[in-house]
Amino acid sequence: MDKKKNKFNTYLILGCVLLVILYSFSFLKKPTVDSRKSLKTALVNSKYKTEIDKIVIKNDENSITLEKNNSFWEISSSENPFIKLPADSQKINSFLEKLTSIIDVYKIADKKNNEENYNLDKNAYDFNFYVKNELSGRILFGKQDFSQTKRYVTSESNKKIFEMEDTMQNYLSVKINSWSEPFIISQQVLNSIKKDDIQRIIVNNSEKYTKNSKNWDEYVSKLLDLRQGGIISQEINFDLLEYQLKLELGNKNEITIFVYKTQNEQEFALKNVYFNSSTNTKSEYYSLISGWTFSKLKYE
C-alpha cells in the first residue's frame, strides 16, 4: 500500500514540476507583433475636405455621382444623370472625414501586375474626387484580407498597394439607396421639416386639410416617415397623373408631390417640387415608390 502511495506521489511531484517549467517558458515567449513598418497618412489631403464638390463612384456593375448643391448633396446614376435625388449628406460628410483623417497603412506589394490579386482592377471600388469640376484625386479600394478586418487600397498616382484597417465597409457601394436620402420628403432641400411646420395640405387641387382636420397629426407624422425606393429609370408619362399632394409650410415654402402610374401596377413614379420662398426658386426630384407606400401617402 505504501509503495503504491509513494509511486503516486512521485508522479504527482513530476507533474507539478513539468507544469512549473512550462509556465516559466510562457514568460520567455515574445508576443507576436506586426513587424511591418507603418506609414501614417491620409487617403485624401485634408485641405480638400471642404473643397470636394463631386464624387464619382464606379465599379464593374454601376457608376453613381454625388454632387454638392450649396449646403447639401445630390445623387444621380450614370444611366440617367439628369434625374437626381437628395443624397445622404451626413453620410457623405462622415466619409470625407474618414478619408482625410491620419491612419496607419502598410505596404503590401508593388502595384505593377498585382492589381488583380487584391481586387484593385475592374473589381475595385473606384472613387474619383472633383473640385470645381477638375479631378483632384482617385482612390481604389480592393478586397478585405483573410481576417476580414483590413482592406487593400491604392491611389491612381501611387505605384504601391497598401493595407489599412477596414473603416470603409459602409461606404463601398454603387447602389442609389446606399447614398440617397431615404425619405420621400427631403429633410435637406428646404432644411429640416417637422410636423408642426406643415400648416395646410391640398389634395388634387381641391380638398384642403389643416391642423384641425380629422387624423391630421397621425397622417402628417406618417407622411414624414415614408421612404422612397430610388431613382426612377423609366420614362414618366405625365398624362397618367394619379394623385397630387401640396404641403404649405409656415415659412411660405411649399412642397408639391405628383404621383404617376407606371407600366408596373405595383410601382408609382413621384415628382417632388420644392419651392423656396426666400430665393423664389424651385427644385425637382424624381423617385419610385411601391403601391403600399402610395396607399400611405394618400390623405384618408
Which oligomeric state applies?
Answer: single chain
End-to-end separation in angstroms reads 94 Å
- Spatial order of strands in the largest sheet: 1-6-10-9-8-7-2-3-4-5
Question: How many separate domains make up the residues?
Answer: 2
Element string (H = helix, E = strand): HEEEEEHEEEEEHEEHEEEEH
User: Helix content range of the residues, please?
Assistant: 10-25%
Q: How much strand content do the residues show?
A: 35-45%
**Could you say which structural class the secondary elements and strand pairing correspond to?**
alpha+beta
**Average pLDDT number:** 89
Number of strands: 16
Keywords, separated by commas or semicolons:
single chain; 300 residues; alpha+beta; 10-stranded antiparallel sheet; 6-stranded antiparallel sheet; 5 helices; 16 strands; 38% strand; elongated
Summarize it.
With 300 residues, the protein is an alpha+beta fold. It is built from 5 helices and 16 strands.
What does this structure look like?
The protein is an alpha+beta fold and 300 residues long. The protein has 2 domains: 141 residues, no CATH class; 116 residues, no CATH class. Helices cover 20% and strands 38% of the residues. It has a 10-stranded antiparallel sheet, with no helix packed on it. The chain has a 6-stranded antiparallel sheet with strand order 12-11-13-14-15-16. The longest helix is centred in the N-terminal third of the chain and has 27 residues. The relative contact order is 0.11.
Strand and helix layout:
Blueprint: H1 2-28, E1 38-41, E2 54-58, E3 63-69, E4 72-77, E5 80-86, H2 89-99, E6 103-110, E7 125-131, E8 134-144, E9 150-155, E10 160-165, H3 176-179, E11 198-203, E12 207-210, H4 216-225, E13 241-249, E14 254-261, E15 267-276, E16 281-290, H5 291-297
Antiparallel strand pairs: 1-6, 2-3, 2-7, 3-4, 4-5, 6-10, 7-8, 8-9, 9-10, 11-12, 11-13, 13-14, 14-15, 15-16
